[in-house]
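Readers of this paper often ask what the protein records in our data store actually look like. Nothing more is needed to write down the fold, since each code stands for a local backbone conformation. Below, we set out a record of this kind in full and without editing:
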Amino acid sequence: CFKIYIAGSRADSADPELYRKMKKAGVVSIEFGLESGSQKILDYYNKKTTVHDLRQAVIQSHEAGFFTAGTFVLGAPFETKKDFQRTLKFAQSLPLDSASFLPLRYRSYTDLWMDAVKEGHIESKEYEIYADSTKHLGMYSKKELLKICERSQILFYARPKYFKNLLQKSLKNNDYSLLKMLLKIFAEGMKEKMTMMKTKREVM
């Protein structure tokens, strides 16, 4: 029996009848490029969708029984901490099994990249570059943005409600792979934190 995983699905293609056919065909997972929980950011990226539509697409995927994942991109030129918080709260309010928070990257020959080249912020030989305030690409440095993404990732997963829902879904589907992975990441994170605290005490 083949298992089919679909990544980068568009929210505007969500349809209960289509999902039923996909489920019957063997699709087990759908990943949405959700980008943001802020409408002004979605409009800036020319997503041609609304926050409401994104929510409905995720809910329909979840109700169809798919493992549902979402990807969010942080670091648009005018994006503020308030926008980051809005996106995190949006992600936490969705029935997502997995979420990724990634820094914006300017990739060659995309509209964002070409605009940045015209404005002199990126050289034409730079084919991929992170949003970075030191290059006049956004309001935060690359280092700050990576920290914001990491913190958003932690806050998404570190919720009792999330683990409860994940455990219920794992039991229902008899699939504990994601649960094991998250527990491993949590254990490694705690180990690293304890090591840092020990090192700090020794230095003091």
Q: What stands out?
A: The chain is about 50% helix and 15% strand. The longest helix spans residues 177-203.
